[in-house]
Amino acid sequence: MNDLDTIASISTAIGMGAIGIIRVSGDRAIEIVDKIFKMPSKKSLAEMPTHTIHYGHIVDQNNEVIDEVLLMLMKAPRTFTREDVVEINCHGGIVPMELILMNIIKNGARIAERGEFTKRAFLNGRIDLSQVEAVMDIVEAKTELSLKQAINQLEGRLTREIKKYQDELIDIIAKIEVSIDYPEYDDDDILIEDLLGKIKQMRQNLEQLLATSDNGKMIREGVKTAIIGKPNVGKSSLLNILLEENKAIVTNIAGTTRDVVEAYLNIDGIPFVLLDTAGIRETQDIVEQIGIDRSKKCIEEADLILIILDSSDEIDQEDMNLINLTINKNVIYVLNKTDLEFKTCEDDILEYNKASKIVNISTKIPKGIDTLKLEMKNIFKSIEIASNVTISNQRQKESLIKSIQSLDQGISTLEEGLSVDYIAIDLHEAYGHLGMIAGEVLKEEIIDNLFGRFCLGK
């Protein structure tokens, strides 16, 4: 494989559809497609102006027509990859798309690797790494909110914010370097006070940016919502009702759910990832115990917990164990089976937690489901894109944390009365960690792993 190869791939979903798109990018893209594309005018693609659409036919080596197509011609550098790009719009069947692609490969291109078009855009300076991640987030967006966040990042707003802080760091570093070279022009006390003020202000700004990471992650990945409870209290039934489909197996046998069942739910634009967990109880069954251990892990990682309690039964020690496991978490107590005689009511739960959020439901009738959805939504109604700039994933968050730690080290250096020479090192490190967010310096294996998440035609 060579990064200078001309690459090609089907960019639309494989299957039957009205239109299919085959994308070709590279120095030889126009030359290769010219060999199999015939226009009524008999002209060559190389003669045509950039960013134009042309009607014609794709033919094989025997000049037999494969398909009638529209071809979009985009010449470098005003393209996504900053290379010559040709996109062939053909009929969306599997056979015509694969035949066209095969003929492009025969004439000198190679099949693109996963994400290679976007990787070339990154390597050729068309987009930075945060924008690369935004491309994937747009593809995977499940709500308007997650799409808006991805679009903001694709437009480079995060990059511009990071660049602003890097420029401020450069100004501070330059001032330190001048004071080292020309110490006679600066009063040390005034210089240190000025540096401390600027660095602490920058640290505060970065902390504010870091504070967007939790919301950014939930917008991007969904609010992780664990549905927990004893066996046979209606956890899987609730999941199915919320989704309006039979996602989980439901029986009267306790311990039916042995593993975590994951599903996606959109409540008025807020994304929730529902996790139906194995019933938590004491058991000698090895397989069931594995499921219970996974349930407990879900509790630790969840943004929201729905504790399902059987209102037709009294609260027992197993219920209390669950309540204790979820202390200091976002919890909604869901009293199920309210179509039966009450043995546990809201007052019983309030004895344990006066601030409890409680919803009465019945998965059998069903009733109370809309109330539960509203309660879930209200807890996270503050999730919004508070500004145009959001930290949306763990990689960005870790880089920002490391930058703040470097600033903290610099502040300690100044406050301990050490020479300003030392702080320059800390500030350079802070600058580098900020640059990692946009991918200024990145290990090759991290880049390969990131682009490996993409589909072939992207």
Description:
The structure is a single chain. It is built from 16 helices and 13 strands. It is an alpha/beta fold and 458 residues long. The protein has three domains: 7-128, 2-Layer Sandwich (Gyrase A, domain 2); 135-212 and 390-439, Four Helix Bundle (Hemerythrin (Met), subunit A) (Up-down Bundle); 221-379, 3-Layer(aba) Sandwich (Rossmann fold), CATH 3.40.50. The strands form two sheets. Strands 3-4-5-6-2-1-7 form a seven-stranded mixed sheet. Helix 6 (157-181) runs antiparallel to helix 15. The radius of gyration is 29 Å and the shape is flat.
Salient structural properties:
13 strands; 45% helix; Gyrase A, domain 2; Four Helix Bundle (Hemerythrin (Met), subunit A); 458 residues
Global geometry: flat
Round the mean pLDDT to the nearest integer and report it. Answer: 86
Main sheet: strand order: 3-4-5-6-2-1-7
Give the total of beta strands.
Answer: 13
- Uncertain ranges: none
Q: What is the fold named in CATH at topology level of the largest domain?
A: Rossmann fold
Along the chain, the helix and strand elements come as: EEHEEEEHEHHHHHHEHEEHEHEHEHHHH
**Continuous helix count:** 16
Largest sheet: 7 strands, mixed
Radius of gyration: 29 Å
CATH top level of the largest domain? Alpha Beta
Helix content, binned percent: 40-55%
Question: Any idea what the CATH architecture of the largest domain is?
Answer: 3-Layer(aba) Sandwich
